[in-house]
Design brief:
Strand content of chain A: under 5%
Structural class of chain A: mainly alpha
CATH architecture of the largest domain in chain B: 3-Layer(aba) Sandwich
Oligomer: heterodimer
Helix content of chain A: over 70%
Largest interface: A-B, 33 and 42 residues
Number of domains of chain B: 2
Helix content of chain B: 40-55%
Low-confidence stretches of chain B: 252-258
Number of strands of chain A: 2
Number of helices of chain B: 11
Strand order of the largest sheet of chain B: 6-7-8-3-9-10
Radius of gyration of chain A: 20 Å
Low-confidence stretches of chain A: 325-335
CATH topology of the largest domain in chain B: Rossmann fold
Distance between the termini of chain B: 46 Å
Number of helices of chain A: 13
Mean pLDDT of chain A: 85
Chain lengths: 335, 258
C-alpha cells in the first residue's frame, strides 16, 4: 500500500481535491444562493478538520479519545484571546492555536498515555470536561459564560476574507492542510507503526516500537490540528463561548469517524460532512431530523461495522477497549 | 571451539505472590546455536521467556544479552538490541495487510519517526521496504503481500509472525510454541524451515510444549519443570534423563513397571 501509487497520480489526486474544494464546491454553494450554504459549509469544514485529526489518534493509533472538543476549545480561545487582546492577525493566531492545543494535549497525555484502554478513554473524558470547566470558570481570563465577542474576521496578508465566502476559503485551506498532514503520516511507515499500536501495542513493542512515545506524538499532532480548527471557528464565528466545546461535540466528532470508518481518511471527511449537512438538509421535517440522524448512525454501524470506508471495526475496537478492563490479564488501569 | 555467548541468564527468579514461576534459572545461549526450551504446562517457559524479552521484570537475577545487562529494559529496547520474538497465541495485526504487518518489524528496528513521516524519509522507506520484501520472500508469503492478515490461514499466520520477527534482522530469534495447533505435515515443514534459518547462521531459541519438534531439530535442549531447570544437554541425553521423564510423565521408571 505504501509508496506503490505513482507520483503522477498522487499529484493528480491532490489537484483534483483542490479543484473540488476551491472551485466546484464554492461554485455550487454560490448557485444555491445566499450566505447560509456557505455558513453550513464552514461548519462542515471545521468538523472535517476535527474528524480528520481525531481519526489519527482513534482511527489509526486506536486510542479512544472522548475529549477532543476540549482541544478544539483551547485552540479557539487561544486564537480569540490573541486577536482581541493582542491584536494578532489570523496568520499568527492559527499557529498559536495549534501550538497551544498541542502543548495542552501533550501535557495531559504524558500522565495518561500509560493508561490502557477504557481507563484512557475515561481520562480523556475527564480532560475534556476539565477544559470546559476551566473555560467556564476562569472568568478573568476567558470571560467565562459570557464568551468572547467581536473576534476580528480573517485577513491574510492584506487579503480580506471577512465574509462567509472568504471564511469558506480559509476553512477549506486549513481543512486541506489538515488532511494533507494526516494523509502524509498515515500513508507512510509511520502510519503502519501507529496502526500496529491499534492492533496490539504489546506486540508492537516487541518489534522495537516505543508505544508511549508514538502515542504521545500522535496525540500531539492530532491536538494541534484540532487547535487550528478552533482558530478557524473563532475567527469565522466572531463569538465563542464554552458551550461550543463540551462532551456533546466530542461525541459528535467521534460519531463522524465511526460512521465514516475508523482509520479511513476519506471516511472521516465523508462522516463529518454527512453529520453536519444531514441535519441541515432535513430541516424540513423539523424536530424529527435529529431522530433521523440517530437512526442513520444506528443503521450505519449495524450494517457497516467498519463504517462506510473504514479499515477497522468500531465495534471490535470499542469491545476490546472496554472489555480489556474486565479481562483477567490486566490487573489495573496502569501498564 | 566455543562461540561467543549471546545470552547469559544468571540465577533468574520471578515470583508471583507466593508462586515462584521461575526459580533460580541459569542458562546461556551461544552464537549460532539452535536451542530448545521445553517443559510441561505451567513449567514457567513463557514466564522465563517474558523475563528475557523485557515483558516481565525479574524478582532477582540478571539477563545479559550481547554483553549488556538488560534487566529493567523495556520490550522495545530489548528488541532494538537484536532480540526478536513470536508469541505463543499468534499475535498478528489482523486489520493490516501482510506487507504492512511485516514492515512493522523493519520500522521498529530501523526507525521511522514523525519526522520521516512528515518530510518524506525516502531513503529510509526504501530500506524498510527492501527488508520487508526479503522477510516475506524468506517465509514464502511474498505472493500474498497485499492480502489482509486476517484472511490468512492459521498456518500462514505462523509464518507471518516469523517474517515480522525476521524483518527486525534479529541476532537472537525466540519462537514461542510455533508448532502449537499445526498438524504433523505442517510441523514437519516448520521443522525444515527452522533448520534452514539455523543453517543460514541464525541463533534460535525454540520454546515448545511438545517434545517431538524440539528433539528432532535442536542441538541442545533445556528442560524446565516447576520453574527450575532440571536438564540442559543434547536431545538424546535429555530423553534418557529420569528427572525429565518424571517431570513429563509424572512417574519414575520403576513405578511404571509396578
Amino acid at each position: 500500500m505504501v509508496a506503490n501509487a505513482s507520483r503522477v497520480s498522487v499529484a493528480a489526486r491532490w489537484l483534483g481535491l483542490a479543484a473540488l474544494l476551491f472551485g466546484l464546491i464554492p461554485a455550487l454553494l454560490a448557485a444555491i444562493g445566499g450566505g447560509y450554504p456557505f455558513q453550513v459549509a464552514i461548519t462542515a469544514l471545521i468538523f472535517v478538520t476535527l474528524a480528520v485529526s481525531l481519526n489519527l489518534v482513534t482511527g489509526t493509533a486506536g486510542l479512544l479519545s472522548l475529549g477532543h472538543a476540549g482541544f478544539f476549545g483551547v485552540g479557539a480561545y487561544a486564537a480569540a484571546l490573541a486577536s482581541t487582546k493582542l491584536g494578532w492577525p489570523f496568520p499568527l493566531t492559527l499557529p498559536l492555536a495549534a501550538v497551544a492545543a498541542a502543548v495542552v494535549g501533550v501535557l495531559v497525555a504524558l500522565p495518561t498515555m500509560r493508561l490502557i484502554s477504557i481507563y484512557f478513554a475515561v481520562a480523556t473524558l475527564g480532560i475534556g470536561e476539565m477544559i470546559h470547566v476551566a473555560l467556564l470558570n476562569w472568568v478573568s481570563f476567558t470571560r467565562g459564560p459570557m464568551g468572547i465577542r467581536a473576534i476580528p474576521p480573517i485577513e491574510v496578508l492584506g487579503l480580506d476574507l471577512s465574509g462567509v465566502v472568504g471564511g469558506y476559503y480559509a476553512a477549506a485551506a486549513v481543512a486541506a492542510a489538515g488532511i494533507f498532514a494526516v494523509h502524509r503520516l498515515t500513508h507512510s511507515y509511520y502510519g503502519n507503526a501507529l496502526r500496529s499500536l491499534r492492533e496490539d501495542d504489546q506486540c508492537a513493542a516487541a518489534m522495537g516500537l516505543n508505544p508511549v512515545r508514538l502515542k504521545i506524538e500522535a496525540f500531539g499532532v492530532s491536538c494541534a490540528i484540532a487547535g487550528a480548527a478552533g482558530a478557524v471557528y473563532a475567527h469565522t464565528a466572531s463569538f465563542i463561548s464554552p458551550d461550543s466545546f463540551r462532551f456533546e461535540e466530542s461525541i459528535l466528532i467521534l460519531a463522524m469517524i465511526v460512521v465514516g470508518g475508523l482509520g479511513s481518511l476519506p471516511g472521516a471527511v465523508v462522516g463529518a460532512v454527512l453529520l453536519i449537512v444531514l441535519p441541515e438538509a432535513l430541516r424540513g421535517i423539523g424536530d424529527f431530523r435529529m431522530i433521523a440522524v440517530g437512526v442513520f448512525m444506528f443503521l450505519s454501524i449495524l450494517f457497516q461495522p467498519k463504517g462506510l470506508l473504514g479499515e477497522a471495526s468500531a465495534i471490535a475496537l470499542f469491545r476490546r477497549q472496554l472489555g480489556a478492563a474486565w479481562r483477567g490479564d490486566i490487573q489495573a488501569g496502569w501498564k | 571451539m566455543t562461540a561467543e555467548t549471546l545470552l547469559e541468564v544468571t540465577a533468574l527468579s520471578r515470583a508471583f505472590g507466593g508462586l515462584r514461576a521461575v526459580d533460580d534459572v541459569s542458562a546461556q545461549i551461544r552464537k549460532g546455536e539452535l536451542v530448545g526450551l521445553i517443559g510441561p504446562n505451567g513449567a514457567g517457559k513463557t514466564t522465563l521467556f517474558n523475563l528475557i524479552s523485557g515483558f516481565t521484570p525479574p524478582s532477582s537475577g540478571t539477563v545479559v544479552f550481547r554483553g549488556r545487562t538488560i534487566n529493567g529494559l523495556k520490550p522495545h529496547q530489548v528488541s532494538r538490541l537484536g532480540m526478536a520474538r513470536t508469541f505463543q497465541n499468534l499475535r498478528i495485526f489482523p486489520n493490516m495487510t501482510v506487507f504492512d504487518n511485516v514492515s512493522v518489524g523493519a520500522v521498529g528496528a530501523l526507525g521511522y519517526g514523525l519526522r520521516h513521516g512528515f518530510f518524506g524519509g525516502r531513503a529510509r522507506a526504501e530500506e524498510i521496504s527492501a527488508r520487508t520484501w526479503a522477510a516475506l520472500e524468506r517465509v514464502g508469503l511474498a505472493g500474498v503481500a497485499g492480502e489482509l492478515a486476517a484472511n490468512l490461514s492459521y498456518g500462514k499466520r505462523k509464518y507471518l509472525e516469523i517474517a515480522r520477527a525476521l524483518a527486525t534482522d534479529p541476532v537472537l530469534l525466540i519462537l514461542d510454541e510455533p508448532a502449537a495447533g499445526l498438524n504433523d505435515t505442517e510441523t514437519a515443514e516448520l521443522a525444515r524451515f527452522i533448520k534452514g534459518l539455523h543453517a543460514e547462521g541464525g541463533t534460535i531459541l525454540l520454546v515448545e510444549h511438545d517434545m517431538g519438534l524440539v528433539m528432532s531439530i535442536c542441538e541442545r535442549v533445556m528442560v524446565l519443570a516447576s520453574g527450575a531447570k532440571i536438564a540442559d544437554a543434547a536431545p538424546a541425553a535429555v530423553q534418557a534423563d529420569p528427572a525429565v521423564l518424571e517431570a513429563y510423565l509424572g512417574i519414575a521408571d520403576d513405578e511404571e513397571v509396578a
